[in-house]
Design goal:
Order of helices and strands: HEEEHEEHHHHEEEEHHHHH
Number of domains: 2
Structural class: alpha+beta
Strand order of the largest sheet: 1-2-3-5-4
Helix content: 40-55%
CATH class of the largest domain: Alpha Beta
Distance between the termini: 56 Å
CATH topology of the largest domain: Aminoglycoside 3'-phosphotransferase, Chain: A, domain 2
Number of strands: 9
Number of helices: 11
């Protein structure tokens, strides 16, 4: 792999003499990630390769790695913290489908971000900071971006129900959540924006100074911007800090304040709706991971571990639906 990376880098990076320290990173259930250093006379350049796993078809919801690279670069150019794209893989690179980007130092592991002393000063600021980042993402001009699939609440409900029923794995709580969502569909958003689609712990590189980069844009689409705000509040991304709904480190009020300080408007009721939707979506995705683990061909333990978390989302849904009914 290191030799292949070296040949590729030499074709687009003038002066590069090779690569070193190539290593496949853990994490990422859908894409393959490698870290390596580009050896250059001006100094070592830290880089990351993100590519499709060999022999795996793309998810029907994924934008594709070529489009993902464009979205990341447009975000970077607009001042949104996103890695700089260095190179999009070509057939002659013989590395498959994907792209290389500048490596950003920092942490993505939630347990460390929420508990380690080095992030103590950043944690109280993160919720407001990510509100501002989401405002920046939603402010990107759709007309200047590659064509993206459109998503409405009604379509998302339909897609989730179809996926859920395809598993032939009945879950009464999921049935309840689907009915709740159908009955409370708020209708089309007043505006359609770029939606990141998976803005949460694990897809954020965080340092002692706060968020340094937003990763994994593969589920980006055009839709209701409140979807991203609801998704980041899903209990599964709090990692035990359930009283801090935004990633286990902040409040919804702080998130909303950061969003509105950047010039955008929050609709709290729609955010709550999308939080319920997001919780159900993660539960269905977990079931899908378990199905992939069972049928193969790659029996990834990571997929099995994610799959078992579907039961956690049932508890979260019951708590959400009960509180909404009382309210």
């Amino acid at each position: 792999m290191q030799e292949a990376l070296g040949r590729c880098v030499a074709s687009w990076c003038p002066g590069a003499t090779g690569v070193s320290n190539a290593a496949r990173l853990s994490g990422g259930a859908s894409q393959e990630t490698w870290s390596f250093d580009i050896i250059h006379p001006d100094g070592v350049i830290g880089a990351i390769l993100r590519r499709a796993p060999q022999g795996h078809g793309a998810s029907p919801r994924a934008v594709g790695l070529d489009v993902e690279s464009i979205l990341m670069q447009r975000a970077f150019d607009a001042g949104v913290p996103s890695p700089r794209v260095l190179h999009v893989l070509q057939p002659q690179d013989e590395l498959g489908t994907g792209f290389m980007m500048a490596r950003v130092d920092g942490e993505t592991i939630p347990r460390k971000i929420l508990r380690d002393a080095q992030f103590a000063e950043a944690r109280p600021k993160l919720a407001r900071q990510i509100g501002g980042i989401l405002a920046g993402i939603h402010g990107l001009d759709l007309a200047q971006l590659p064509k993206l699939r459109g998503m409405t609440a009604a379509k998302e409900i339909g897609d989730l129900e179809r996926d859920y029923r395809s598993f032939e794995w009945p879950r009464p709580v999921f049935e309840l959540a689907l009915r709740w969502l159908r009955e409370r569909d708020p209708g089309p958003s007043r505006e359609m924006t770029l939606v990141h689609g998976d803005f949460r712990h694990g897809n954020l590189i965080i340092g002692p100074d706060g968020v340094r980069a937003v990763l994994d844009w593969e589920l980006a689409h055009a839709g209701d911007p409140m979807e991203d705000l609801g998704w980041v509040c899903v209990n599964s991304w709090r990692f035990g800090e359930i009283d801090k709904p935004v990633g286990g480190f902040g409040t919804r009020e702080e998130l909303f304040a950061g969003y509105e300080a950047a010039g955008r408007r929050v609709d709290p009721d729609r955010v709550k709706f999308w939080e319920v939707m997001g919780t159900l979506r993660w539960g269905v995705m977990c079931c899908g991971m378990m199905r992939h683990f069972r049928i193969g061909p790659e029996h990834s333990i990571e997929r099995a571990m994610i799959g078992r978390r579907s039961s956690e989302t049932e508890i979260d849904l019951l708590r959400l639906l009960a509180s909404r009914e009382r309210g």
